[in-house]
Amino acid sequence: MVATVLVLLSTQPLAAGPLAGNAWVMPVVTLIIVGREITMSALREWAATLGPAARSAVAVNAWGKWKTATQMVALTCLLFTRDGASTQLAAAAASAAVPLLAIASYLTAHSLVVYMAGVWKFMK
């Protein structure tokens, strides 16, 4: 569902907020987040075939939980402001959406690095 929302939001520039009108923000964020999810799915499947030690190396951790929470809040803010609503709540959501999306992108990339470091020793 996150991938669907990201792809749909990528079809038009951000409607509001500090980066309003930029057409490159959402596609870049979408690439980072969806690419990580595909990589992690494959990595977890592969680790499952190697046994419990490898499987525990890619077990869900706090980084992934924070990544997901930040993504959900950022996407909710983006969906709320998508049509350019002009209320004070929409302005606050628009102001929060881009920084939250940047944090979510960082947590996405960082959590992938953490998982890859844990499973690296099994890649021989």
Describe it for me?
The chain is mainly α and 124 residues long. Helices cover 74% and strands 0% of the residues. Helix 1 crosses helix 4 (62-81). It is elongated and about 55 Å long. The model has no long low-confidence stretch (mean pLDDT 87).
Q: Whole-number average pLDDT?
A: 87
Distance between the termini: 34 Å
Order of secondary-structure elements: HHHHH
Count the E strands.
0
Helix count from the secondary structure assignment: 5
Labels describing this entry:
elongated; mainly alpha; 124 residues
What's a quick, concise take on this entry?
The protein is mainly alpha-helical.
Topology:
Layout: H1 2-9, H2 25-50, H3 52-57, H4 62-81, H5 88-119
Helix pairs in contact: 1-2, 1-4, 2-5, 4-5
